[in-house]
């Protein structure tokens, strides 16, 4: 794990309303570039205290994302070959290396203000493990490895970027997605890793909607927040009545290299 930091951002009072809440929006399938742009807009609003802590839950069309530490060996077939399989290849400002997103995989982007980034990651891991337990899947973390595992099989990945004390990117949990594309890369830079999913572990198809509810509830609990379902328009529409706080000093800017 690689962390670089500047001065910590002081905690500010929440002027957005919704103090103690985790505003949660369920977005369906969103192209990766659109999801990244949306996160950046909401991060900027969170930094200005125009939003409370927020969670986006969505799926992406087939895409490999390259974190900052990705090397050529992580995509051994070459970018054109992946494109010929219908899988986009894009760069990401999150930590870590290459991973895959596709339909049937639940992607969560928490946009939250934090003080302790390592404790935040542990909270996300605990939430994923609890949500998987709700589905009857016995998951765990593994010493020296990131993400969430079922025995020696990886079921969830985590990659976080933090700017001025607010997170973007987040986690991806394999629910009933196609696992074949993971075999065509070196997922999270871990040679020989085996991937699994809720479907593979339980034999129950069509579980994404139910797991999405579990995941939202468990993350809110892990972060000590009350979940509140909101529309994308409520998040992204702006609010001219929200006062601007005084400019904050340049603060926390860090990257976690996670897989």
Structural key phrases:
single chain; 259 residues; alpha/beta; BirA Bifunctional Protein, domain 2; three-stranded mixed beta sheet; globular; disordered N terminus; disordered C terminus
Mind explaining what this structure looks like?
- The strands form two sheets. Strands 1, 2, 6, 7, 8, 9, 10, 11 and 12 form a nine-stranded mixed sheet that branches.
- Mean pLDDT is 84; it is low at 1-15 and 239-259.
- The chain has one domain (21-236, 249-256): Bira Bifunctional Protein, Domain 2 (BirA Bifunctional Protein, domain 2), CATH 3.30.930.10.
- Helices cover 25% and strands 26% of the residues.
- It has helices at 32-47, 79-84, 117-134, 198-202, 208-222, 232-236; strands at residues 21-29, 54-59, 63-66, 88-91, 98-101, 105-111, 148-150, 153-163, 166-174, 194-195, 226-229, 253-256.
- It contains six helices and twelve strands.
- With 259 residues, it is α/β, with parallel strands linked by helices.
- Helix 1 (32-47) links the parallel strand 1 and strand 2.
């Amino acid at each position: 794990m690689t962390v670089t930091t500047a001065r910590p951002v002081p905690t500010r009072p929440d002027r957005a309303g919704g103090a103690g809440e985790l505003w949660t929006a369920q977005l369906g399938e969103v192209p990766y570039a659109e999801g990244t742009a949306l996160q950046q807009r909401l991060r900027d609003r969170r930094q200005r205290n125009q939003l409370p802590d927020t969670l986006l839950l969505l799926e992406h069309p087939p895409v490999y994302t390259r974190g900052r530490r990705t090397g050529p060996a992580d995509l051994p077939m070459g970018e054109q070959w992946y494109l010929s399989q219908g899988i986009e290849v894009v760069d990401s400002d999150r930590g870590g290396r290459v991973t895959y997103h596709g339909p049937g995989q639940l992607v969560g982007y928490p946009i939250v203000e934090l003080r302790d980034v390592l404790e935040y990651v542990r909270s996300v891991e605990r939430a994923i493990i609890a949500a998987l337990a709700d589905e009857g899947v016995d998951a765990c973390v593994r010493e020296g490895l990131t993400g969430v595992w079922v025995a020696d099989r990886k079921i969830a990945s985590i990659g976080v970027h933090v700017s001025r004390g607010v997170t973007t990117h987040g986690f991806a949990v394999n629910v009933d997605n196609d696992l074949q594309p993971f075999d065509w890369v070196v997922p999270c830079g871990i040679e020989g890793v085996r991937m699994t999913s809720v479907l593979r572990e339980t034999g129950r198809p069509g579980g994404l909607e139910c797991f999405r509810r579990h995941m939202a509830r468990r993350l809110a609990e892990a972060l000590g927040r009350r979940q509140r379902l909101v529309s994308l328009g409520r998040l992204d529409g702006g609010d001219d009545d929200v006062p601007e706080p005084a400019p904050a000093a340049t603060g926390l800017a860090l990257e976690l290299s996670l897989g």
